[in-house]
Amino acid sequence: MSDETERRRPNILVTGTPGVGKTVTAALVAERLGLRHINVGEIIKEHKCYDGHDEELDTHILDEDKLLDLMEALIQKCAVDNVGIVADYHSCELFPERWFDLILVLRTNTDVLFDRLTERGYNDKKRSENLEAEIMQVVLDEAHESYDVDIVQELPSNTKEEMEGNVDRCRMWAEQWVKDNA
C-alpha cells in the first residue's frame, strides 16, 4: 500500500459483537463525513470469501486471505481517489493496523443485545455465544491487542441517541484528523 501519510481522509473501523449497531453507525458516519462505507460482511458474501459453512453456529467459515486481498485493493483505490473509508465488521484482529486511524468498538447492554439478536432470528447457541462475547468484552480486548490503544475508542450503542452521539464524536475526531494531517 502507498505511504499512509499521503492520505488526506481518515480510515475508520467500526467493530463490536454482532447486533451492537456497527452497520447503522458506520453508514451514518460515512454519510455525514463524506467517506465510503465498506460493509465487510457484504464483501464476504458478494465475493464468496469463505471456505465452507459452520452448521452449528449457522455461519460461514472465513477465507481471511481472500478477504484481505480484496480489502487491500479497495483501500488502495480509495486512497488514490482521496476517499476515506468507514469499514464495519464484527472482528478486528485480522486487519493490518496501518489500514485504520480510528477503531470504534461499540458496546451494548446484554438485555438490549439479546432482543436485537432474537429479532434477527439467531438460534439459541449463536445468540448465547454472542452475548458471552459481549459480556467478556472479546472484541474490545481484541482491539486493544491488535492496535495502538490511542486509536481504540469504546462507545455505548444501546439507543438511537447514543448512536447519534457516537456519529457526532466521530465527526469531530475526523475533522481534527484532517487538520492534523493537512
CATH topology: Rossmann fold
Q: How much helix is in the residues?
A: 40-55%
Distance between the termini: 20 Å
Beta-strand residue percentage: 15-25%
Form type: globular
Q: What does the average pLDDT come to?
A: 93
Side by side, the strands of the main sheet go: 2-5-1-6-7
The gyration radius over C-alpha positions equals 16 Å
Structure classification = alpha/beta
Largest sheet: 5 strands, parallel
CATH superfamily: P-loop containing nucleotide triphosphate hydrolases
User: Based on DSSP secondary structure assignment, what is the total number of beta strands?
Assistant: 7
Q: At CATH's second level, what is the architecture?
A: 3-Layer(aba) Sandwich
- List the domain count as a whole number: 1
* Weakly predicted, low-confidence segments: 1-5
- The first-level CATH class is given as Alpha Beta
Give the SSE order as H and E letters.
EHEHEEHEEHHHEH
Number of helices: 7
What does this structure look like?
The chain is of the alpha/beta class and 182 residues long. The chain has a single domain, classed as 3-Layer(aba) Sandwich (Rossmann fold), CATH 3.40.50. It is 48% helix and 18% strand. It contains 7 helices and 7 strands. The longest helix is centred in the C-terminal third of the chain and has 21 residues, at 160-180. The chain starts with 11 loop residues before the first strand and ends with a helix.
